Amino acid sequence: MPHLLAPSLLSADFAELGNAVRLIEESEAAWHHIDVMDGVFVPNISFGLPVIKSIRKHAKKPFDVHLMIVEPDKYITAFRDAGADILTVHYEACTHLHRSIQAIKAAGMKAGVAINPHTSVELLADVLADVDVVCLMSVNPGFGGQKFIERTYGKIEALKAIRIRTGSKALIEIDGGVGTENAEQLLATGADVLVAGNSVFGAADPRAAIAVLAS
Ligand code: DX5
Ligand code: ZN
Predict the structure, then answer these.
(1) What totals of helices (H) and strands (E) does the chain contain, helices first?
(2) Ligand 1 site-directed mutation target among 5, 9, 11, 147, most atoms within 8 Å of CB
(3) CATH code for the domain of 178
(4) How far apart are CA 38 and CA 108, in angstroms?
(5) pLDDT (tens digit, 9 = 90+) per residue, 148-199?
(6) Which one of the listed residues 38, 64, 175, 192 is annotated catalytic?
(7) What's this model's pTM, rounded to 2 decimal places?
(8) Which of 151, 147, 144, 88 is nearest to 114 (CA)?
(9) Average confidence score pLDDT of the chain
(10) Based on the structure, what is the number of domains in the chain?
(11) Which of 21, 151, 173, 177 could form a disulfide with 193 if both were Cys (CB 3.0 to 4.6 A apart)?
(12) How far is CA 117 from CA 44, 90, 156, in A?
């Protein structure tokens, strides 16, 4: 399967958010990656439901919504209504992760689970068959433009083995510090989806950056 690119709107100029969305729509990118932060689960606050609802009108491609919030269960249907197609919750934020995954799917979305750099992929084994996307955080969540954590390659390998063992079809998504310097090796190791914030919207030519990272 060819890989998917999901540019992260977190690194876009929020005063020009509509233009960033249209840029993704007209590009080779597959998904919009949308980072929601609450200032509690992560030490930063980004944007939330009304912003997603506004930009949804300007987009046809799937919205890959990454919730970096505590108590995500409270907001599952609200994010569905705002326009999320894939809703990703953090393993570390869910006491009853299996229930959260089922609730996301019952709401009609694809279910994603993200894990922080310190969390072992082995902890996902018992839910992996029910998960559509595993988001491996390759930085500590909260900010764009951070340095890629090299240990991520080993986590991709380990996750691939668990995927085979459990019969899961989950896509492996890499989030944080992804750019032209590591994209090729990530894909060769087994990444299915690359998230790219700073390496797209921080580039002199974001359109060209998407073309390179999506190919
Ligand atoms: C980090 C977010 C990422 C972020 C990635 O907490 O989950 O999606 O936007 O940004 P870059 O690609 O700049 O590391
Ligand atoms: Zn993200």
Answers:
(1) 8, 8
(2) 11
(3) 3.20.20.70
(4) 24
(5) 999 999 999 999 999 999 999 999 999 999 999 999 999 999 999 999 999 9
(6) 175
(7) 0.98
(8) 88
(9) 98
(10) 1
(11) 173
(12) 17, 12, 12
